[in-house]
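Q: Given only this backbone (285 positions), what sequence would you predict?
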């Protein structure tokens, strides 16, 4: 192949890729994902959330450095400045891809201000450092917390011998809707049967909480939900359709929506970033 053809093909490929992105720009959000080397500082690769704890240290150390510079306390300032510097440089050791994001000149300046008792220069240098912290956070903080710290429900296996967690959820919502349909269509027996199946399904779901909540036991369904179930049951026998709808709505909020707000939203976000769509899917949609 001649050189010119080769270059022409390269240009065409770039134009096609650029075109795809451009024409989908209203439907696309580009997010930066953290380097894979970050994973070693989180579960399951690591027992502790080492990365996050290094961050907590940095925040505390910046506070201490600021305080002791204001108080002109040379001894304590030196001690905290050394820690700050150590943990800041550790960022680049832990994730080498991020080493270039560090402002090593600034941390050296800070250290020199501290060693030479130039207290008045420290506040400004700390502001500069803070900007450096924030510039990485703007890109990577939320996505890292979501990818590495949101609980993973996809791996829950003890819901039943053949059922996945999602299938179990689909059954629950079918029972909720079956109650609603049967109530509206004047078939209370059908509604009551579905309610007892729903109760059973919720009890099964309740057994999965301990997998993650070992110490802070979660009582699911729990007293409040059980008493709403009892009201719904009573209402399906003797109440009006309006009463039944209201009780069912209350139950859905207490037994489903609340948990979805704490658990489903992060689980969905996590999946969005960890099972990333490939280009083929992106083009198809
Ligand atoms: C190269 C990237 C990077 C730099 C530089 C950086 N951080 Fe972070 N930081 C992160 C990431 C990623 C997270 C999210 C970690 C998580 O939530 O598990 C984070 C989270 C944090 C948190 C936890 C926030 C919270 O409230 O949950 C603190 C505190 C923090 N960083 C402090 C600092 C300080 C102080 C500096 C500067 C001295 C700094 N970070 C510099 C990447 C960085
Ligand atoms: C895959 C792991 C996992 C499973 C399974 C799980 N949770 Fe959680 N849950 C967490 C994590 C992590 C948190 C946030 C930190 C914490 O409280 O430990 C949390 C927080 C919560 C909170 C808010 C904080 C609090 O303590 O009040 C509630 C309520 C809750 N879970 C209820 C439940 C219920 C009910 C179940 C079972 C139906 C359940 N969780 C199953 C991981 C899980
Ligand atoms: C642990 C707290 C928790 C409780 C309580 C809970 N859910 Fe869920 N639900 C989840 C999580 C997490 C997902 C996401 C699962 C996934 O996609 O892997 C989910 C997903 C779903 C889905 C979507 C399934 C799909 O096809 O992707 C439905 C529907 C659903 N839940 C219905 C219900 C109903 C109805 C109830 C109440 C009777 C309920 N859930 C109670 C956590 C909970």
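A: Predicted residues:
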């Amino acid at each position: 192949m001649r050189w010119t053809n080769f270059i022409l093909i390269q240009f065409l490929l770039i134009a096609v890729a650029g075109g795809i992105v451009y024409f989908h720009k209203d439907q696309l959000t580009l997010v930066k994902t953290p380097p894979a080397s970050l994973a070693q500082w989180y579960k399951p690769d690591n027992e502790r959330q080492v990365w996050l704890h290094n961050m907590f240290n940095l925040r505390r150390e910046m506070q201490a450095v600021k305080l002791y510079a204001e108080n002109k306390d040379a001894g304590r300032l030196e001690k905290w400045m050394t820690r700050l510097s150590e943990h800041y440089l550790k960022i680049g050791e832990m994730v080498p891809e991020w080493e270039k994001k560090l402002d090593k000149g600034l941390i050296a300046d800070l250290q020199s201000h501290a060693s030479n008792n130039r207290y008045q220069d420290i506040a400004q240098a700390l502001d500069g450092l803070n900007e450096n912290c924030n510039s990485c956070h703007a890109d990577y903080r939320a996505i890292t917390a979501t990818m590495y710290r949101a609980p993973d429900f996809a791996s829950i296996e003890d819901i039943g011998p053949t059922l996945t967690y999602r299938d179990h959820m689909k059954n629950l919502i079918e029972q909720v809707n079956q109650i609603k349909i049967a109530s509206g269509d004047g078939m209370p027996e059908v509604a009551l049967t579905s309610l007892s199946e729903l109760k059973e399904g919720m009890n099964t779901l309740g057994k999965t909480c301990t997998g993650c909540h070992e110490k802070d036991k979660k009582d699911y369904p729990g007293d409040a939900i059980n008493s709403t179930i009892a009201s719904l049951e009573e209402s399906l026998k003797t109440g009006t359709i309006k009463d039944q709808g209201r009780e069912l709505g209350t139950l859905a909020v207490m037994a489903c929506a609340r948990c979805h707000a704490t658990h489903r939203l992060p689980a969905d976000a996590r999946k969005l970033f960890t099972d990333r769509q490939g280009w083929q899917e992106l083009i198809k949609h």
